[in-house]
Amino acid sequence: MKKKFVLVIAIILIAVTACVLLVGCAPKSPTDFLDKWLSSNSKSMKLGDTVISIYGNVAVSKSKVGNEEFVSYTELDGDNLNMYNGRNQNGKMVWSKSSMTMQEVKEMFHLEEDLKNISDIFKLQMEISPEEFKDFDKNFTKKDGVFVGNEDGEFKGTTIKLSAKEMVVTIGDGDKAVITTYTIGCDKISIPDEAKNA
Q: Is the whole model's pTM more than 0.85, yes or no?
């Protein structure tokens, strides 16, 4: 009987510990989520018909404008930044490629510090910063699990849904709403041979 009691207590302790650990993984605010998202080596962002994914030191951007599809791969290979751009013309993908050194990238953006990885370049180009949400508690109210911009603030009409791996920011509503989805994690990115051979 004593062994069963100890076993039941152990199972309860394991269950409680697992619940606490799971709750601890969920971001508390967009600032917390963006910190985790920006530091992740595997992530994606979707805005309208454009999806940008980063896996290690390779990034891909896919977008559609009207009937045209565009694909752009960026690869950090040692001290070189290789770029492969594809455009769907008459049902066939036409590729071009270019390359520049990281020193050239540093000079182009007038940087004092070196860029260490693709995520650093992405942050620089997108100008994404957790600082945008530094006064988050003053500007948003949580309603039914969704953060809603206060009516009297600069984020009026903005909603933010958070989960452990995703943040969905919606500005406006209806057909004119702008929805941006940030996701931690993405599939491995492989650059097609036809792009590398362009």
A: no
- The residues facing 58 across adjacent strands are 55, 75
pLDDT by residue for the chain (198 residues), tens digit each? 444 333 333 333 343 333 333 344 678 888 889 889 988 999 999 998 899 999 999 999 999 888 889 999 999 999 999 999 999 888 889 999 999 998 998 888 888 888 888 887 777 666 666 666 667 888 899 999 899 999 998 889 999 999 999 999 999 988 889 999 999 999 999 999 999 998
CA separation (Å) from 79 to 7, 56, 59, 76, 114?
Answer: 57, 15, 16, 7, 11
Of 76, 43, 48, 81, give the one whose Cα is nearest residue 62: 48
Q: Which residue has the tokens 């007038």?
A: 110
Q: What are phi and psi of 149, to 5 degrees?
A: -60, 135
Distance of CA 13 to the CA centre of its chain: 35
Domain ranges of the chain: 25-196
